[in-house]
Amino acid sequence: MNRELEYMFVERARVWIPDAEEVWKSAELNKDYKNGDASLVLMLEDGTNIEHKLDPKTKNLPYLRNPDILVGENDLTALSYLHEPAVLHNLKVRFVDSKLIYTYCGIVLVAINPYETLPIYGTDIINAYSGQNMGDMDPHIFAVAEEAYKQMARDERNQSIIVSGESGAGKTVSAKYAMRYFATVSGSASEANVEQKVLASNPIMEAIGNAKTTRNDNSSRFGKYIEIGFDTRFRIIGANMRTYLLEKSRVVFQADEERNYHIFYQLCASSHLPEFKTLKLSSANDFLYTRQGRSPVIVGVDDTKELNATRNAFMLLGINESYQMGLFRVLAAILHLGNVEIKDRDSDSSVIAPNNRHLTAFCELVGVTYQDMTQWLCHRKLKTAAETYIKPLPRLQATNARDALSKHIYAKLFNWIVEHVNKALITNVKQHSFIGVLDIYGFETFEINSFEQFCINYANEKLQQQFNMHVFKLEQEEYMKEQIPWTLIDFYDNQPCINLIEAKMGILDLLDEECKMPKGSDDSWAQKLYNTHLKTCSLFEKPRMSNRAFIIQHFADKVEYQCDGFLEKNKDTVNEEQINVLKASKFDLLVELFQDEHPATSPTGQVAGTGGRTRLSIKPDKSREKSSKEHKKTVGCQFRNSLQMLMETLNATTPHYVRCIKPNDFKLAFTFDPKRAVQQLRACGVLETIRISAAGFPSRWTYQEFFSRYRVLMKQKDVLPDKRLTCRNVLEKLVEDQDKYQFGKTKIFFRAGQVAYLEKLRADKLRAACIRIQKTIRCWLARKKYLRKRCAAITIQRFTRGYQARCLAKFMRRSQAATVIQKYQRMCVEKKRYRQKQAAALAMQTILRGYMARQKYQGLLRQHMAVIIQKRIRGWLARCWYKRCLESIVYLQCCIRRMRARRELKKLKIEARSVEHFKKLNKGMENKIMQLQRKVDEQSKEMRLTNERLNGLETSYSAESERMRGELSRLRGVEEDAKNKTIQVTSLLEELERLRKELSVTQKEKKTIEDWAHTYRNEMEKMVSELKEQNGSLKKDKDDLNRLIQEQSQQMTEKMARAIAEETQQLETDLNEERSRYQNLLTEHLRLEEKYDDLKEVALSSNVSKPGHRRTDSTHSSNESEYTYNSEYAELEEGSRAAEDVTRGIDTSLTLKLQKRLTELEQEKQSLRNELENKEDQFQRARARDDAEFKKARGAELEYESLKRQELESENKKLKHNLAEMRQSLLGNAATNSGAPGSPAYKVLLDQLNSSCEELDVRKEEVLILRSQLVSQKEAMHHKDEKETMTEPSVYVEDVSKLKDADEIKQAYVGLKDTNRSPRFMHKPLDVNDLLSRLRSAAPDFHKLNEDGELWLVNQGLKETIRLLEHQLQTQRRGHDNEVEALRGELQNVKEENNRQQQLLAQNLQLPPEARIEASLQHEITRLTNENLEFMAEDPTASREARVIILRRMVDLMEQLEKQDRTIRKLKKQLKVYSKRIGEMGAGQTEGQTSPGQMVDEPIHPVNIPRREKDFQGMLEYKKEDELKLVKNLILELKPRGVAVNLIPGLPAYILFMCLRHADYVNDDQKVRTLLTSTINSIKKILKKRGDDFETVSFWLSNTCRFLHCLKQYSGDEAFMKHNTSRQNEHCLSNFDLAEYRQVISDLAIQIYQQLIKCMENILHPMIVSGMLEHETIQGVSGVKPTGLRKRTSSIADEGTYTLDSILRQLSAFHSTMCQHGTDPELIKQVVKQQFYIIGAVTLNNLLLRKDMCSWSKGMQIRYNVSQLEEWLRDKGLMTCGAKETLEPLIQAAQLLQVKKKTDEDAEAICSMCQALTTAQIVKVLNLYTPVNEFEERVSVAFIRTIQTRLRDRCESPQLLMDTKMIYPVTFPFNPSCLALETIQIPSSLQLGFLTRV
């Protein structure tokens, strides 16, 4: 032991030392501790060094601190060092840093009040804790409730949850959440909503039993024990409540800053309501009983709303309005009674003023007389043996009597409410077990402690004793289970304190005795206490300075009680005459309050009528007392009896403890006061639990856990195959003292501190290994660094030498360059001098030559001007002549063209009115095109000839002009030479002198110009350089601007793309939400249907039908027939009647809820129906206008047609009947051999029948010919319309400015347009105004022409003419192309119509003879109707003509029908004649005899009329009575496994559809409806029966989808027929539109899909946590947590360990099953996506609720498991189904566990990485992050706050857990089948032989 202490108390070891402020303070040793040292040198956390003196007697060392990796443990008993500072520090770290309010302490749940609303009590949290073991999840009140519920179900033993703590610690809230958990998890056994009633009792009890105190705004001033009853299926059936020690004194007195009970303030706040006017209430400050605390308002609480909640709770519990008003009257009367003022009459008597308004109000409210109350409030009656006296009371006693009466009334009212709450919670179902929730006051000590605190602390002493015994018992059971030697543990036994209080001659006994004394007082009772217990009991003390108080040493602390008021409160006396006055009241409720009470039962007794439930009463047994002694039993005696009964109940149950801690007295959120906390921990027994655990072996490890954790301390030779032997050998070497550990059967038990010792050994071993690793790595790093430095030095040397060499070469190059520069500079100077001289000479030459050139130029210019004048004059003369000729020619042309145009227009008008024009139109177009082409060629040839002539004339004119100019210039030159020679000499001399002067001036100017040029050149060079710089900067700016523009454009593009993507995503989200909402409504509808079916079954099984008339449920409307199986109509009637009987017994709350839900659904349905009706009305109004004229025209024809068709049908039926009779007669005569083959009668009959059949075939062909003629006429009309082509009229240019000609052109165009009857040309008419404008623009403006270029004008006119003609030609060509396309479209339509006619003809040929005519007529009527509608829609004029044609066709058709009728009647007469002849011949044959040889040669055979073989059309025929058999064999009794393995996928769906096709083929709507209804109901029935079987649900999901696809594929809609073959298109439904049934079947498929998801979830859910989190897929990565987390021994044993391979195998099984069943690939992808969402959500939720799973190694395990799931997706080809994205939150959570979590950069990285996680989830993971080894670091609080600050602006849901019940909305993409229906074979194994292939 000393060696271990020396090893633990070394330098830098951390310890705890006592502190006055913080209770315990952490310190660190500055040097090692040596045995015998008197003090320790310590350093505090703030750096202060102190010397800690050791006790010289005990030498006790300070407590050691636990390692950092153990700080924040879920269970306090799992700490290595178990002592008070470790417990306090662990609670503080969890509460303040991690924001965790729950912590385990062995079997106790410690709950610290956060004074803040936390999101950890939602339904998702309840679902997460449901079914989990207590040690597997983080501590929570739900975990305790789940453990109690699970033990009740497993052990069939009643449970109790004991919630205790100080006022304000959160007891009531904890008890409320525990009851909410039971109500949510278990539900109720009936529809009476018992769980809601149990929860509804809370607001009532809080209103009448809770009040504001200085420590708590909602303090429970009474104790309560609620028993929640369960049936054999562990569903809530009822509850019972018991209350303890109501604080009645609060009714009449409140201390400062406190309030009376909430109900009084609620009534005062609602006094303005009309129903409360009679109560005569006002503000709470107006009443004595509500204003004494001077704090009538609680911040944040609305008393008016609270009263509404209380009244609603009363209604839910069955306390109606009248009873509520009665209760409120009593409460108001108490307030008025408190305001009654009693005055002194004299010193011994008192009086109440007459007409006191408050007493008057009291008497009116309670129904008593004013005089009686006045009398007995101021007097009392004294009885002696002989007589009775009435004694007046002094004012003080009268006031006390008034207050006593108020308290007594309130106590009676409280008990009455509790009793009626219990009645509302009682049911007739037998109770199997119960869970009790005890919400009772904790240990209390105040400055002044009275009788109430004495009783509270007495109750806590009893509970602490029970707690200590239970903890001791559990420890003993654990030791015995592991076969460890059991040694008694010394623990505190508070039995002496309990004996001091309740034993004979104890405090309560003496108090009761003193109460019986006539003159007993508090002082005399205190003296008796001193005399009896002061010297005999060490737990009883007397204060030094008081004779009216005593001190008791409780288990928690010493408490001083003041004796004042003990006797009065214990006696609780009330004036009996006042009670009698109240009993005589006219107020029934008040009389009921004071009536005699029923006797209570024993703790194990049963109350009659409760079905065997155990009910324990709080009231004492008064069965042997008279009513006159009702008030003689003391409060202490009552409380002792009820407490004894409570302890008996608790001892008969398995208790679970919740200790509530109040962290501070100022109600500050997440603020921890160590002093207050440690005081409560000592008082509530938590530290006692720690002490008991530490006294034994608190740390417990399994052998495997110990081996995995401390494998590093073992050598290779120590590892043996037997892990147990290995652990034993290692421990013997590591721990010398064998008393420090014990070996159990499955665990190793350690004393306190031993695990810390082993952890230190392990850490030292790992530290040594780390040092060695670091040494090696540092050596390697140093060598690498040295090699890098050496390489760098060599490189520097190389570069330095190279630099020096380059410098020498540079110097040599510069020297050579200087020589070259000098040479070139000298050359440049000489070259410059030479160029100056050369430039001077050139300047002189230039001036002289320029002068000569200017003189020559002036002469040439004068000659050229003369030539131009001559040219202009001659041109003007030519243009005048040309203009006159042109005007004459143009006028002549216009006249001729106008004459021709008028002739052509008349001819066109005549042709337009002729019918032959349309026949020649196409041919005429070709001729016109050829003529126009010839005209174009001729005009082009003429234009070329004209151009050639013009070119020749221009050439000759130019030559003549040049010759004349040459002659003129020669003559002028001779004249000038003569003149110039005379003045040449003088002018030359003058010129020479002038030139000399100019030369001198020029030289001066040259020098000036050279100077200026030099200066200018310098300035230009400077300017050029500046401009280059500016240009460079501008280019740079331009590049920057271009780049900025590109960036902005790119940003805008990205922004637009993001906006589009976001909008698309939002639309997809809205669509999915709408789809999800619709599917949720379907789920709710299915749930209500199932509930209705269950009620119906219960009614059928429990109720016997009675005779008489019963009203059926009105909700069974005709619409339900579509979903109701026909054969079950009678059962449904009986079920509805029985269900009506059941619903009469259902609780009204369920009825209201269902009615509300039904009303919502009806409103939604009505809104959708109204919208649909509005749309239909709009469509009908639009269609009615189009159909009005058509209906008028067709009315008579349709009537005539229907009459003829009916007559024809009747004749055909008669003919068929006669034919059948003839066959019967033939068959009947066959026995007499009269109709044997070969006989004359047989031959005659056969010939006649054949002839009649041929005649019928002929008539049938005639009908077909008539129909083909009608079709050919229609085609002829189409061809005729196609030949009618509209062309633009040839418009010739004449005087386009004349309006008359424009009108004529427009009239011709309109006439041509009217002749075009084809409606397809109506949408592109030619605009005449555009044509005229085009002609006007083409004509040149002759008045504005220049006089030059007349020939060019002619050429331009010809070009414009040609361009106009080309445009007309192109327009006609385009029109021709459009007509060709239209003709092609018409041809295609004709081909399609031909195909349809051929298909119809083939179908008609397959029909019976009597049905062919009707089918052909029906088709012809339909076709004509459609054509008529089309014509009417396109052109009303054409439609009228079409109607005339149709009427003519109808008349022709009717004539043909009449002819056929006459033929049929003729055939009928012939058949009658032949039948008579056959009868006569048969009679003659019967008289003859047949020879024996004939009998042998010609045996008798039945007459068979041969029929032609028909191809199978993919239909199955069945009889109406076989429908039940079909549904039974194909759905109800079908085995999915055999069908999936042996037959084609979806075979039942194909068979059902083929049967449906036949029903459609025969046009039997009833058969279609019943088949579909039977199918839907049967699928629902089989799913309800076998809904838990995945294979069955998957099979019917696949078949339902296939049936839905078949209904779409063969519906006839073009959208679904794109992928069909021609044969499949022939199989489309022809008579019925089943779109509505498709929606119904789609809804059914959605329900099956949701059932499939639930089935898969039930299978996967037990595997997910074990396989994804707990199982170590990578062995050795996840180390075992130090000290071994204690699993609850009472938890259910594991059913088996699931691994990741188990999940993958199950997923593969799901996938293969769905593939075998032929499920659509898209649907499989949706199922897999939902599977992966469930896996990710469940895993993440458990990770967020399990602190032990939040570590770095577990993050690696999760990421590996996710990669395996992704690999599975890759193998199955499902990577694109979106399943991987559903795992993104889990992946990010795993990454969050592994990333670095220290700096701001890490925080930024985490925020950008964890986009799929919410802020609450990120903070939760960081708070739960737990290091597994010492080398890992915890996440600091500052870092978590940084994360919260960065994520503050996120807009997201505050929900912590993912919704595991969420189901993605499912879609069923259309998937057509390539399987031909006619090829499907029905196996005999299906037993469907009654189906006939058609």
Which secondary structure elements does this structure contain, and how are they paired or packed?
Blueprint: H1 2-8, E1 14-19, E2 23-29, E3 39-44, E4 49-53, E5 63-64, H2 84-97, E6 102-105, E7 108-112, H3 123-129, H4 141-155, E8 159-165, H5 171-186, H6 194-209, E9 210-211, E10 219-220, E11 223-230, E12 236-244, H7 262-269, H8 288-291, H9 303-316, H10 321-338, E13 342-346, E14 349-352, H11 357-366, H12 370-378, E15 379-383, E16 388-392, H13 395-425, E17 433-439, H14 451-481, H15 495-502, H16 507-516, H17 522-533, E18 540-541, E19 549-553, E20 558-562, H18 566-571, H19 576-583, H20 588-593, H21 635-651, E21 654-661, H22 674-684, H23 686-695, E22 699-702, H24 703-709, H25 723-734, E23 741-743, E24 747-750, H26 754-913, H27 916-1102, H28 1129-1144, H29 1148-1229, H30 1240-1283, H31 1299-1315, H32 1328-1338, H33 1350-1406, H34 1409-1434, H35 1436-1487, H36 1492-1497, E25 1516-1517, H37 1523-1532, H38 1536-1542, H39 1547-1561, H40 1565-1585, H41 1590-1609, H42 1622-1626, H43 1635-1670, H44 1700-1716, H45 1721-1744, H46 1752-1772, H47 1779-1782, H48 1784-1794, H49 1800-1809, H50 1815-1824, H51 1837-1846, E26 1892-1893
Parallel strand pairs: 7-21, 8-17, 8-21
Antiparallel strand pairs: 1-2, 1-5, 2-3, 3-4, 6-7, 9-10, 11-12, 11-17, 13-14, 15-16, 18-19, 19-20, 22-24, 23-24, 25-26
Helix pairs in contact: 4-5, 5-6, 6-9, 6-13, 7-9, 10-11, 10-13, 14-15, 14-21, 14-23, 16-17, 24-25, 26-27, 26-31, 27-28, 27-33, 27-43, 29-34, 29-35, 30-33, 30-34, 30-35, 33-34, 34-35, 37-40, 39-40, 39-41, 40-43, 41-43, 43-44, 43-45, 44-45, 45-48, 46-48, 49-51, 50-51
